[in-house]
Write a structure and sequence with these properties.
The complex is a heterodimer of chains A (115) and B (117). Chain A has 115 residues and is mainly beta. Helix content of chain A is 0%, strand content 56%. Chain A has strands spanning 4-7, 10-13, 19-25, 31-38, 42-51, 54-57, 65-70, 73-78, 87-94, 105-106, 110-114. Chain A is globular, with a radius of gyration of 14 Å. The N and C termini of chain A lie far apart (34 Å). Classes of the chains: A mainly beta (115), B mainly beta (117).
């Protein structure tokens, strides 16, 4: 299994509070991703990173920010959480493209509930 | 933008029988990859099988095989000899090929498969 650790695994918080989710990898992969999973939508990309301090927006980035100060850590921040951000959040990693398939490998997810 | 459609929200199959999950996608790319991921109740995302679009031969991994129809943009998953442990949500995913594509993947909404004893 790919060495990906998400923390926390579960979190309950209140609307308007800041929340930070952490993804830590031990694989030294270049790319890291944050997805959210909601019923009827599958997984949707929030933000991704293609290197230290290099990030870009995904499909559903509004209300989220990310930071990557080290290769191994990718943080997802909800500056002021809203109930619509209640979801399961997955981190994924993949290696640089060197030809052939480079599937993403996923962490175990964080269940976030915003009341 | 690429879109992935899984038209079967839920399916069920008897243990030991065969089931096929459907997936269609929309793209103007000619080179890409397709994947099936399995998500059991444990919530892990597990890669089941992958297919390179330039390969005509359908991928096979033990009891799992795909029927890749590039012209029809169809990528179905066949599970043979279904087992109780195959009960899970299955996601079809698309990824463009290329050095500068950041390995960005697009997922379908998923099919929930239940294997009945």
């Amino acid at each position: 299994d790919a060495g990906i650790t998400q923390s926390p695994r579960h979190k309950v918080t209140e609307t308007g509070t800041p929340v930070t989710l952490r993804c830590h990898q031990t694989e030294n992969h270049r790319y890291m991703y944050w997805y959210r999973q909601d019923p009827g939508h599958g997984l949707r990309l929030i933000h991704y990173s293609y290197g230290v301090k290099d990030t870009d927006k995904g499909e559903v980035s509004d209300g989220y920010s990310v930071s990557r100060s080290k290769t191994e850590d990718f943080l997802l921040t909800l500056e002021s959480a809203t109930s619509s951000q209640t979801s399961v959040y997955f981190c994924a990693i993949s290696e640089s493209w060197t030809g052939g398939t480079q599937p993403q490998h996923f962490g175990d997810g964080t269940r976030l509930s915003i009341l | 933008a690429q879109t992935v459609t899984q038209s079967q929200p839920e399916m069920s199959v008897q243990e030991a029988e065969t089931v096929t999950l459907s997936c269609t996608y929309d793209t103007s790319e000619s080179n890409y990859y397709l994947f099936w991921y399995k998500q059991p109740p444990s919530r892990q995302m597990i890669l089941v099988i992958r297919q390179e679009a330039y390969k005509q031969q359908n991928a096979t991994e033990n009891r799992f095989s795909v029927n890749f129809q590039k012209a029809a943009k169809s990528f179905s998953l066949k599970i043979s000899d279904s087992q109780l442990g195959d009960t899970a949500m299955y996601f079809c995913a698309f990824m463009k090929q290329g050095r500068y594509n950041n390995n960005d993947m697009r997922f379908g909404a998923g099919t929930r498969l239940t294997v009945k004893p």
